Amino acid sequence: MQTVVITGGSRGIGAAAVRLFAARGDRVHFLYEKNHAAAGAVAAETGATAICCDVADAEAVKAAFARIAEVDVLVCGAGIAHYGLMSSVEEDTWDRIFAVNVKGVYHCVNAAMPAFLRSHRGSIVTVSSMWGQVGASCEAAYSAAKGAVIALTKALAKELGPSGIRVNCVAPGVILTDMCAGVDPAVLEALAQESPLCRNGSPEDVAQAIAYLAEAEFITGQVLPVNGGLVI
User: Fold this and answer.
1) What pLDDT, on a 0 to 100 scale, did the predictor assign at position 187?
2) Is this model's pTM higher than 0.85 or not?
């Protein structure tokens, strides 16, 4: 049984990962920011431990990890998006996107590091986006932040590999989560038809990729696209 910590675990990809790791018999803790009802439902369904924590808050992250004795796998899934022209992105919005998507990874990796170093092993899986690989019009802040996650993943893989710690990344494509709730269904269907698999993804598709990278002992520093072939 491994101890798995998942950020952004109350919904979407994070919740799917909580369900998958819990179903495998792992001891799962997940962080969430504010949706107490959703977090409670996931915890009740899976037996996982829900911890309310804004990953952008360094002290809150330290307090959350103080409640977790050991960490074998860290999944950095917490993220927020923004749609709009670059010229319309307020500085506070830009800062918040980077605080959650990038600084949140920084805080959580550093909080988990003592446990990883004690055991001289561990696996970190970050969650980026295909837009972090190729960029998206009207999603400049989100694309930039997710691109930073990819660069951070590769740097950490080189830095932490000698300590037995692997660091990999999944880059989801169009995944039918809350982030897509405001997207015109016709646009979603058009995106599905652009994919060689002719469909959009599910949170479970990404959770399976996360679980694979968590266990793949000779893979580190890699970005695994989970996009149905939309970006090749």
Assistant:
1) 87
2) yes
